[in-house]
Each structure stands twice: as C-alpha cells, then as structure tokens.
Amino acid sequence: MLTERPRRSRRTDALRALTREVRLSPEQFIHPMFVHEGEGEQPITTMPGVSRHDLPGAVAQARLAQSLGIRSVILFGIPDHKDPDGSQAYAEHGIIQRAARAIKDACPQLTVIADTCLCEYTDHGHCGPLCQTGTGEWTVDNDAALTLLAQTAVSQARAGADVIAPSAAMDGMVEAIRTALDDAGFSHVPVMSYAVKYASGYYGPFREAAGSTPSQGDRASYQMDPAGGYREALREARLDVEQGADYLMVKPGLPYLDVLRVVRDSFDLPLIAYNVSGEYAMVKAAVQAGMLDERRTVLETLVAFRRAGADAIITYHALDAARWLRGE
Questions:
Q1: What percent of the chain has pLDDT over 90?
Q2: Distance (Å, rounded) from C-alpha 46 to C-alpha 59?
C-alpha cells in the first residue's frame, strides 16, 4: 500500500499554488529598452516584438511597463555618431542621458537603470578605446576605458539614472565608477555590475539591435571564457564586491544557471539574471514554428532563474510575462 502520494498536493491549481516555493511578480522584471536618435519606431528583425524607440516612444514604453506593474527599465542607446572613444556615451546630451531625463520626468517612480558601456558608441564596436600591444596587436586599452566609463556613469547619474550598470568587462571598472560617482556627489546611486559576463554566442541579436558588433576581433580577451568554470566566476564577482558593487549580475542566464546558483550561495548582494537576446530569439523562433507554447515556456524559464537564486531578471519577455501574471 502506498503511504506517500505527492500527487495529492498537485491535484488542483489552488493546491499547487498553496505550497509553491518560487513565485514570480512583475516587480522582479527589468524591461530592456533600445533608444535611438532618429524618429519613430524601428522593429528589430532578429528580435520579433522588440523595437528601437525614439524619445517619445521610449517614454510610452516606460509608461506601459509601469502600468503592468514593472518598476524598473534598463536603457541601451544607439547614437547617430560614433568615434574611436565612444564620446556620445558620456556626452551630457547623449541619447541615454536625454532618455533618462524624459522617462524620469514622465514616470518619477520608475527605476531607470543606465547600461554603462562604450561598445554601442565606438566606431570599432569594442568596449573601450583601442591601443597596440608591444607585438603590434590591437586590443582595448583597459585603463583608458576606465576613465571614459567613469565619465559616462557620472553623466548618466546627473541625467537622473537611478542605477549605473557597467557592462564593459574592464578590470577595475566598478572601483573607477564608484569613486567617480562619490566624488561627483552621487554616493547614493548604486552600481549594478555585470560581474559574471561571458563571451557568449547568445548576444547576436542584441549586437544587431545596438549596432555593436566588433569590426575586428572579438571580446574573448575581456569577457569571460564559457569554459572558465566556477573559480573564474567567483573571482570576478568577489573583485566587484570588494570594489563597491551594490548588485551582481550573471549574463547570459539559461546556459549559466549553475553559475547563478554558485554566485547566489557565495555572496549576499542582490543578484540579477540577464535573460539575453539570443535566449529570447530562440523562444520566438520556436513559437513561430509552432514548436512551443510561448506563455508556458517563458514563465517556466523565468521561474528557473528565480529558483537558481536570482532576485530580479532582465528579460525582453517582461511586458508579456507581466500581462500573463495579471491574467491577461
């Protein structure tokens, strides 16, 4: 005779909900937004349902996200001018700076997170100015990039960004940004570090969306090796904690759920998972081919991030997931 029957507690939706360990809420989602200098909406072909927005469109998107219960957005800028140093990243009237001001004016209670990098703004697509090594190879000048990233962070905070999110994968960037923010009177502005960021093949659609594909080489010399293992991940996270990070991030999400769990167990800072563009595009392609149920697949994926230890999730599914959780 069976003495244990786990199915009893799964018999109805109400019973399943009664003892659920993992719960999703729109407040846990961070909605990514691409903002461009031109006019109108520009659909991104590799990311069905996602577009580049002009300033009025970005404000409308922010209002929509807020109306669905989402309380945070992260901004990525597409400038109309690029140069070797990515000067539009730290320009006082750059696209992210103007978008942050416009969104905070329209939605003062919404948390605006500014992605802080140079790759969308440089004419070579790398995350800092280039220099030559002693052997004549071109590489990113790490320390020169720190100065420009610090300028970018201060200009974004001055424009009203609530959180600075450095994604450049430069050694020492959190310390440089934290020091610059403090010196400029923004000690209250937290830093959300892309602490554990891999040189991943899942970024392809984003690079098309942001126009940030490197014109030469790749980012493997400064982003993390996918086969690097847990020690490299923990070292990168520890360095950012020591330098003053307020949040840690693991990017991409799905291929690195094990890393997410290890980072969660090792540090007590809030932890963000980035459900990246390639993960989004794969689901969309499978749904369009009739292979997957989009609602079930997306919500299951988001639950996986939470179960692995994420406190919040950056996801291009944010608007739809918020609607589904509201029963729409």
A1: 84
A2: 23
DSSP letter assigned to residue 272: E
Residue whose token pair is 């846990």: 28
Sequence ranges of the domains in the chain: 25-325
Three-state secondary structure readout of 172-206: CHHHHHHHHHHHCCCCCCCEEEEEEEECCHHHHHH
Question: Is the pLDDT assigned to residue 70 strictly greater than 80?
Answer: yes
CA distance linking residue 221 with residue 277, whole number of Å: 22
Catalytic residue check, 104: no
Catalytic, out of 82, 104, 197, 284: 197
Which of the pair, 59 or 38, is modelled with greater confidence? 59
Sequence-distant (6+) residues with CB within 8 A of 134 are: none
**By C-alpha distance, which of 177, 180, 179, 145 is closest to 164?**
177
User: According to the model, what pLDDT value does residue 239 have?
Assistant: 98
pTM (predicted TM-score): 0.94
DSSP string covering 13-81? HHHHHHT-S----GGGEEEEEEEESSSS-EE-TTSTT-EEE-HHHHHHHHHHHHHTT--EEEEEEE-S-
For residues 31 and 47, is the Cβ–Cβ distance under 8 A?
Answer: no
Residue 214 pLDDT > 70: yes
Q: For residues 76 and 81, what is the distance between their CA atoms, to the nearest angstrom?
A: 15
Please state, as a whole number, how many other Cβ atoms lie within 10 Å of the Cβ of residue 306. Answer: 18
Average pLDDT value for residue range 136-155: 93
CB 216 within 8 A of CB 241: no
Catalytic residue among 82, 104, 251, 284: 251
- Rounded-to-integer distance, Cα 293 and Cα 124, Å: 39
Domain 25-325 classified CATH 3.20.20.70? yes
Task: Return the DSSP state at 294.
Answer: H
Judge whether 284 counts as a catalytic residue. Answer: no
